[in-house]
Amino acid sequence: MATAATASSPASRIALGRPSITEAEFAAAQRVLESRWLVLGAENRAFEEELAAFCGRRYAVALSSGTAALHLALYAMLQEGAGHADSILVPAFTFPATANIARFLPGQPEVVLGDVTADSFCMDARLAASWLSQRRGPCILVHQFGHPAPWPDSVGKTDEEAAPSPENDALILSDAACAIGVPGAMRGRAVCLSFHPRKLLTTGEGGAVLSDDQGLIEELRTRRAHGLVVRPSSSGKPSLPGEDVDMPQPGLNYRLPELGAAIGRVQLARLPQLIARHREIAEHYRDRLSGHGLTFQTDHAQRIYQTFAVVLPSGHDRAALRQKMAEAGIETQVASYALHHLSAYSDAKVLRLNGSVSARQDGDLTIASELHSRGLALPLHAELRDADIDRVCTTLLAALQKPGS
After folding, report:
1. Are strands 375-378 and 308-311 parallel, antiparallel or unpaired?
2. Maximum separation of any 2 CA atoms in the chain, in Å
3. pLDDT digits (tens, 9 = 90+) for 138-193
4. Strand pairing report for 87-91 and 349-351
5. pLDDT tens for residues 253-263?
6. Beta carbons of 12 and 329 less than 8 angstroms apart
7. What CATH number should be reported for the domain holding residue 124?
8. Which of 204, 245, 288, 345 is the most exposed place for a label (fewest CB within 10 A)?
9. Based on the structure, what is the number of domains in the chain?
10. Residue 295's beta-bridge partner residues?
């Protein structure tokens, strides 16, 4: 197994995540600074073209964060009539940003929660299929930790039998924040990416929307820059800056700086190697931790590993176990969140397998709740050495044997 060239000493702190930065990223940043062109220039245009090609979609628009990508993409879909626009289906186990955007859309569509499956940690495809069959509104599929979510058209079918449904895809927003380039995550009317520092590709902060719909992309490009557009000059001559500008609809400032785009281009070129190293680390974890009462997310053939999460055996105190690991110099994190355990969504309605939507009751969203309370994210970044991984595993297994953890 390959080891990273840059690594800390065995006794030092092992970070949960660490961006992989090389001399090439420093050189790209310096190139932008020397150009003095820091917003919406050649680096953004090149990054968008290269990103769309890597992910197999026609267009990409770079934005300031993954949350901005979700916000603008869903806003545009609702403006074009994606369902009744009064409710949105979201997996119950996800980072809150996926649901938060609904609170900042016209009319504040109601967030409806669907439980996930214990093997994929992604929303049960039967729920998505039921929702879409009733044309209730958009559905956000989250490809949790890099695992492609099962698509609603796969229900009751083998992979060979399942065929994409353009009618359903038009209502699906694919939250691929953790699953850049995963074929099964690159579907849907729009695909949203995140370039946060814990992601495999980082721009510091940043995000993007992918789509084959040129009109949708042009709408997003306008709205990311305050909604300003340049009208054709009546004189036929090039316009002076600001002279022939209009704002048909207000927008926001969701632009990705040129520095981020330049770094992103370098990261994108290195991405296959980063993906491979993360998979090596995940396989090492699985080898060391299997057979000790821990459970894992499915190792899907397409998946990438943005996060490596384990589910602790029932009855263990996760906080106490994390404290023991922290005292040993190992950083961990909760895997993610069950939204109904957060105050903002404690009264969210639930979609059930029979297609009904109603208030949450005891026994609802049980898998999301288990992952919320027992899920644990372990250190995962390209600079981890094999010895670091062994130290994490040894410490974790020892903590599992001690009372109170």
Report:
1. antiparallel
2. 81
3. 999 999 999 999 998 766 665 555 556 777 788 899 999 999 999 999 998 999 99
4. unpaired
5. 999 999 999 99
6. yes
7. 3.40.640.10
8. 245
9. 1
10. 311
